[in-house]
Amino acid sequence: MSTVTRTRLTAEERQEQLIAAAVTAFSQNGYAGTTTDQVARLAGVSQPYVIRLFRTKQELFLAAVLHAGDRIEATWRAAAEREPTLESLGHAYKDLLEHPELTSMLLHGFAAAHDPAIGDPVRGCFGRLYEVVRELTGATDEEASDFFAFGMLLTCMGAMRLVGPDAVPPQPWAVGLLSTFEEH
Fold first, then answer.
1. Which residues form the HTH tetR-type domain (predicted)?
2. Domain residue spans in the chain?
């Protein structure tokens, strides 16, 4: 007879586990296509436990969006410690494309922003990232705008699996775009 010893997670660790599962689930299926039951199964907990911690699917979704934004911000801050330039932050963002669930989570947040309860926090998250880039690099509004425009192109290309760990061979129209990816 074997005994299995379980390590009890703290409430904070369990919440982090649920948010990680939510990022995975929502990044794959979006807000409308994901249930709290799916998140619970991914995290290995009961659906009522998810609701007890986050009260609603909407609050869980927002926690996942904000988590993705926080991870991107932390990555940019670490890059700026080495070199506080747009180029350095851009390279760090390319590295994030190896974790497509984060950028996909933001895309799903943007897509759900028509809901006022989701839109304000998502816009706040995006605005915070914009201000962080300006703060870390001293970029002008125009430079930051160009940086975010190219980043959004990369995010969309990642969502279409043209860049990142699961990249598919590009169709002819994408070859030119991908060459700009390599140049930056």
1. 12-72
2. 61-183
